[in-house]
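> @MW can you paste both from yesterday?
MW: sure, first one:
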Amino acid sequence: MSAYRDKDPRIHGIQSKIRVVPNFPKPAGIMFQDITTLLLDPKAFKDTVDLFVERYKGKNISVVAGIEARGFIFGPPIALEIGAKFVPLRKPKKLPGRVISEEYELEYGRDCLEMHLGAVEPGEQALVVDDLIATGGTLCAAMKLLERVGADVVECACVIELPDLKGRERLNGKPLYVLLESH
């Protein structure tokens, strides 16, 4: 599911504000999708948030879980607008207090996400937000973390999908909503 397939007229404006930086962060043929240029344009940034809000408002989502770091940019305004709490999913040793952790594989090693214990209650309806899905490893770890505490992950939402990396296939059938694709 995606806004670009629905032909929403705001998508072109959003896509035009995302800068593609070749060979960043390392010279390996990576075409880095830089959303910081999107944030410099208040209309494009608002349109991005509004598209997600329109999709999730009234869907009884009580938790918006944002993945560090760019999920922290889009998650809080979505959460506020739909009347949900925002729960940050952070890299290790960034959250004070008791946490639960979920390790996951990356194309270049391993990483881990953590969440405060008690931030999410069993039975809550959760939305996972990040800027981009590539291989899907981070989104899978986020879903596992939320499901371990009894949340029902309703959907994952990303601004950009890199479909050639087949991350969507790793989500085990969990719905993914993206605003645009980049090849």
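MW: second:
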Amino acid sequence: MGSRSRNLLCKSSSSTLLFLSPSSTSAQLRFNSFTPSKRRSMATQPSSSASSLTTNDTASPSPSPSPSSAIDFLSLCHRLKTTKRAGWVKRDIKGPESISDHMYRMGLMALIAPDIPGIDRDKCIKMAIVHDIAEAIVGDITPSDGVPKAEKSRKEREALEHMCKLLGAESRAKEMSELWNEYEENSTPEAKIVKDFDKVEMILQALEYENEQGRDLEEFFQSTAGKLQTEMGKAWALEIASRRRKEG
């Protein structure tokens, strides 16, 4: 799975789908979902006969997860809320941020970032939410753990595959896999922006811990030096560095 052409495609297990028809006086209900390439919709339609309540065995897999699969997936993702970021834990930071704390603020970064021609903001937001999702299983592996980069990537891909199978919904799992791979491979302009958000969020958090806990976390600032890829990322990092000098 080293390229987008080998993205994970996880299919749901076969099952019979049941669609409940609204009454003839009810408004038609329509639920919209989004993929990186186009907008799709799934609607419930009033049926004229009982035969419309069932689907045959050749029906396409549902693009959305079943309630059971959705709750199983979300329960696994709960670990992202309870697993603390390892870099802060190893430096004895009090009340360190969780993995989901980190991803949430990255999502906000994508939401408020200035418009850039050719950049899909929605994809950036989704990618920020997905980029560390495999850590729900493997945890936050840091360079100090001594795990080779290729082995770390293998573990995370296996974890993502498991999560896709748990989710079950083909289109949702495919989208999640594609976003994760784009980020991992740094293969698109959106991935480069989100990679910068990852570093900028870390140094912003380091500045906050320095101010709140009187710590010197210079190593985190040094670890990102010269590694930002976008003008926006560089500008935000310079703003953080400027505030650090003033507050120091």
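> thanks! The first helix runs from residue 67 to 82.
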